[in-house]
Amino acid sequence: MAEHGIGIVGCGMIAEYHARAVDEIDGARVVAAYSRTLANAEKIAGIAGHGCRTYDDLDAMLRRPEIDVVCVCTPSGAHMEPAVAAARAGKHVVVEKPLEVDLARCDAIINACDEAGVRLCAIFPSRFTPANVRLKEAVDSGRFGRLTLGDTHVKWWRTQEYYDSGGWRGTWKLDGGGALMNQAIHNVDLLYWLMGDVDSVAAHAATLAHSRIEVEDTVVASVRFKNGALGTIQAATSVYPGLAKRIEIHGDRGSARVEQDDVTLWDFQEKIPSDNIILAAIAGRSSGNSGASDPRGISHLGHREQIADFLRALDGQGEPAVDGREGRKSVEIIRAVYRSAREGKAVSLPLTGDPAAR
To answer: 171-226: per-residue pLDDT in tens?
Structure first.
């Protein structure tokens, strides 16, 4: 792998995961960190090491010639401005999920990268866990037969203190939504990656367990996929004590379930030898609920695998697994769910006339 210099923009919690991920990738290092609060940038520099410099002037950081990739780790509704600035400065861009909080802002990032001739990656590390890779392989090889049902459940818990800890949390402008946009978007991404594009959604949303937030903490949606299959989405930060997230894929020749990052159901009409390895792992697993009640209870390993995949693409080794247009799709599905809940009727995709986030 060629040597890649990484700059991080926004130095909150998720930036720590990017810094740790890059530190474990051969041929890549974080050389700069930007935050309006210099002390936050210094914290990330301490994780990155290797002489990482800190900035409270974004333009000054973007002028560094040794930076060829910028990771945008600002609050969700503040991704567009630094991503566009990085693209115009000739840097490739990695954007933490969601790509942005509404489709116009997503499109501004995509268009800026296209115009500048740089690559864009939207962070969805769940696609890179071994369990989900196996699930995708089973779908693509036809082991499920005709897909009939696809369901995802993210029944998590967040305290009131979590929402109170940052002025941007729980706001439409900067969080872009609640449990669905912030926590469950990874599983929304997985659901359409596995089941195919969405035709329409019908949804209900409510704020049931928290105060002083603008967004939902509980949402349910029914889904019709373009291939005719049906499905459901459940997302919450209102479920104490927080349960392991799961995704289930069903067809007329098989069913499978991934709970957290473990396969917990694997049953197909036509067996193959590798099934025995998966079934043995199911028998010996111990349940986990990473992230279900603690925002820090996630691993940086998925970020490492995805950023490494992106850097390989920059080196000419294929296309990135999740580019900007792929990252836009989960935002479109979620915005359709929000519109359905607000208007009390089913909403079809592609979404037209998407207003600013609310």
So the answer is: 999 999 999 999 999 999 999 999 999 999 999 999 999 999 999 999 999 999 99
Give the ranges where the chain is alpha helix by DSSP (H). Answer: 13-23, 38-48, 58-62, 80-88, 103-116, 130-140, 160-164, 185-195, 275-284, 301-314, 324-343
Our measurement of the distance from residue 121's CA atom to the centroid of its chain's CA atoms, rounded to an integer in Å, reads: 11
Tokens 């802002």 belong to: 105
Average pLDDT over residues 70-79: 97
Name the one residue in this structure whose structure tokens are 């973007």.
62
Spatial distance between the Cα atoms of 259 and 113, rounded to a whole number of angstroms: 35
Instruction: Tell me the CA distances in angstroms from 347 to 236, 342, 343, one per residue in order.
Output: 21, 11, 9
Name residue 114's amino acid. D
CA-to-CA distance for 291 and 296, rounded, in angstroms?
A: 6
Q: Cα angle vertex 237, ends 232, 243, to 5°?
A: 75
Q: Which three-class secondary structure state does DSSP give residue 307? A: helix
| C-alpha distances out from residue 176 to 36, 183, 272, 283, 357, Å | 21, 11, 43, 40, 6
For 112: left if phi > 0, alpha if psi spans -120 to 50, otherwise beta; the answer is alpha
Q: Quick one: DSSP state of residue 76? A: G
Q: How many angstroms separate the CA atoms of 90 and 105, rounded? A: 19
Other C-beta atoms within 10 Å of 107: how many? 17
Q: Tabulate helix, strand, coil % of the chain (nearest 5).
A: 35, 25, 40
CB 328 within 8 A of CB 110: yes
Q: Which of 18, 250, 140 is nearest to 6 (CA)?
A: 18
Distance of CA 75 to the CA centre of its chain: 13
Contact 265, 87 (CB under 8 A): no
What is the DSSP secondary structure assignment for residue 174, as one 8-state letter? T
Residue 59 CB coordination number (10 Å): 10
CA pair distance 323, 260, nearest whole angstrom: 24
